[in-house]
Amino acid sequence: MEEAEKLLNRLYEVLPEKEGFECHVFKVGSYNSLASVYFQLHYDANTLAVVVLSTPSFFEATFKPWLQSQQLVGESPNELAERFSSGPMQAYFTQRFAKVKEAMLPIEVEVLHDFDVQSNRRPRVLMTTCGHVSGAAFFYRPPEDALFWLTCLVAARDDAIAVGKEDGRRKGRRSGGGLYHTHWIIQNAEGPDSTSCMASYTDKARYGEMVSAMLPIEVEVLHDFDVQSNRRPRVLMTTCGHVSGAAFFYRPPEDALFWLDPETQKVKRRMGLSLHPKFGGHFAFRAVLIFPHVHLPVEFKENRPPMLLDTIEKQNEAIALFNEHWKDGRFRNCGNPVETYSDLQLKYFALPPLERWSVIADWFVEKR
Question: Which GO CC terms are listed, alphabetically (predicted)?
């Protein structure tokens, strides 16, 4: 831990708070325990990692003088803008974290920027998860359990369906039909067929007899365990049950997961948001620094982020503001932040990157 503390003290000097930075420590294993397989970091579980964020003071205290210094003699503001095709903010952090890597030598550092993506366009790392496990900012999630249960309803495993059907038959049919059903399972439980006894019964016995009995009328049978080549069910049994009047199908609240964008008329999935205990939404994750050869003690515990929004209503309101009204910046004030972005910053970040130059035009004069 002593080595890690020395390294972190050096990092705090390289990325000081007075320049608008905060660094929060976590173990790679803590992140991996929450991230899906698509976003895992392939290092030892105790590997030291740090998530870096920018605070409200960064924009005017650090970014402004750096961008002004990039203007060449005789270069107009428009010419300056043309040189930053990916935007000046990305250029700044690419340069800044390259210097961080140099400053930390001979210790190896891998930098994962907030704009780095994999070949499939997925982010290389989940910044909000890093922020949460490190204690930097609490991540408020949409009610994902609703999506989980919807998936379970549509793609339930064959054996789970069979158990449910079996229970239903035993409760609903206690006469000869139920006795026949139980007797058939006992007889065939040890048979050579590799499929479940319930599937064998419905496929070979009962429905086979039904198809024969209906001749010459043709009947096509779609079993509850039949799937397509992509493992999706051939038919949605719950929907059939609902439209036929057999059983009411209660859907999860999709409006909690998806919303209709009035501008594009496209249905979009809601995203969660992170709120800082001091800055609310007036901050940004910038990078994750990984130190492959530096390990934290097994007993190391990250700080826990404070939950500022202590009711479901407050959380849902913040998530709705973040997804549906992000341009007006109201989501940033959730949690009653004590330090916020300036009006100039709010205008700057509310615009697409190529339109932001007009907001900061008065930062520049033509150098002669």
Answer: cytoplasm
SS3 317: helix
The tokens for 195 are: 């499929």
b/e map 198-224, b = 16+ CB within 10 Å: bbbbbbeeeeeeeeeeeeeeeeeeebb
Residues 180-226 have pLDDT tens digits of: 333 333 333 334 444 455 555 555 566 677 778 888 888 888 877 78
Buried residues in 44-72 as b, exposed as e (16+ CB within 10 A): eeebbbbbbbbbbbbbeebbeeebeeebe
Residue 91: count of CB within 10 angstroms of its CB: 16
pLDDT tens digits, one per residue of 273-313: 999 999 999 999 999 999 999 999 999 999 999 999 988 88
CB 332 within 8 A of CB 315: no
**Sign of the C-alpha dihedral computed for residues 324, 330, 332 and 336 taken in this order:** negative
Quote the pTM value: 0.69
Long-range contacts formed by 105-109: CB under 8 A, 24+ apart: 107/7, 107/291, 107/293, 107/294, 108/291, 108/292, 108/293, 109/289, 109/290, 109/291
Distance CA 111, CA 50 (A): 10
On whether the CB atoms of residues 127 and 285 are closer than 8 A, the answer is yes
- Pairing state of beta strands 110-113 and 266-269? unpaired
Strand segments, DSSP code E, in the chain are 21-27, 47-54, 110-113, 138-140, 258-261, 266-269, 273-275, 284-295
pLDDT tens figures, 300-310: 999 999 999 98
Q: Say how far apart CA 96 and CA 104 lie, in whole Å.
A: 13
Q: Does 58 or 219 have the greater pLDDT score?
A: 58
List the one residue out of 105, 130, 122 whose CA is nearest residue 7.
105
pLDDT per residue over 315-362, tens digit each?
989 988 998 888 899 999 999 999 999 999 999 999 988 889 989 988
